[in-house]
Each structure stands twice: as structure tokens, then as C-alpha cells.
Amino acid sequence: MFLRLFLAFTLIPVIELYLILQVGHAIGALPTVLAILTAAGLGAALARQQGLKALSGVRTTLMAGRMPTDALIDALLIFASGILLVAPGFLTDFMALFLLLPLTRKPIRELMKRRLARGLKRGTVRVFSLNGRLGRW
């Protein structure tokens, strides 16, 4: 896990910097900065709209007396996309857009559900309770 995080926090910024420099070289510095800011602004608006829709789905499912698994995972993925939008760059914006769009979010949600179910079956899912103790399901 540490290696994955280390690679993510070192490789992604290097790739982002490379992409920004390449795009800046191709179209100029100002258009590159404007493209990054525009993508972040439009992405933030889309994240807000999709986030409100996901929360509405959670509320509707709860009111129907069902567990809102899909809506909660959607909300988590939309939150992750919001975090990615904060990071300037084209790669993270693309990843955020991938998590924001319902068509591309659905396969990721299904993958997360399968991995969570597998972890619950194996007993390898770790959770933190409100009292701060580590537990297993």
C-alpha cells in the first residue's frame, strides 16, 4: 500500500508537469493556464451537480427503506473527483471527469462493490469506528 501511495504521489505530479509543459510548448503558456482553469471550473460545476444528484439518490433510497449502496459509492467517487479537480493538470482533470460521468462511473462502482464484497468475505476489510478503534468485518 505504501509503495502504491508513494508512486501515486511521485509519478502523477511528474506526468502532470510533463503534460503541462508539452501543452504549453504546443499552444503557449496563457492558453495552457486558461485551459487548466476552465477545466477545473467546469469540472467543479459538474461535480457539484452530480454530487447533489448522488445525495438525492441516497435520501430517496433511504426513504424507501433500502440500503443506498450504489448512491453512497457514487457520492464517494464524486468526492474523489472533486479532490482530483483541485490538483492542477490535465491527467487529474481527465481522471476526475472519468469519475464524474455516470456512464464511466458505473463500471468503477461495480468494481468497488465486488472488491468490497470479496474483502468482507475474506475478513480483510478494516474499519475505524467513531471511538477510534480498529476493527474487522
Write the layout of secondary structure elements.
Layout: H1 2-27, H2 29-63, H3 69-86, H4 90-100, H5 102-122, E1 126-128, E2 134-136
Helix pairs in contact: 1-2, 2-3, 2-4, 3-4, 3-5
Explain what this protein looks like in three dimensions.
The protein is mainly alpha-helical. The chain has one domain (12-109). It has helices at residues 2-27, 29-63, 69-86, 90-100, 102-122; strands at 126-128, 134-136. The chain has a two-stranded antiparallel sheet. Helix 3 (69-86) packs antiparallel against helix 4 (90-100) and helix 3 (69-86) crosses helix 5 (102-122). The radius of gyration is 18 Å and the shape is globular. The protein starts with a helix and ends with a strand.
Descriptive keywords:
137 residues; mainly alpha
Quick take:
This protein has 137 residues and is mainly α. Helices cover 81% and strands 4% of the residues.
> What does the overall shape look like?
globular
Query: Which parts are unreliable, with pLDDT below 50 for 5 consecutive residues or more?
Result: none
Helix count, DSSP H or I runs of 4 or more residues = 5
Strand percent estimate: under 5%
Share of residues in helices: over 70%
Succession of helices and strands: HHHHHEE
Query: What composes the largest sheet?
Result: 2 strands, antiparallel
Mean pLDDT: 86
Spatial strand order of the main sheet: 1-2
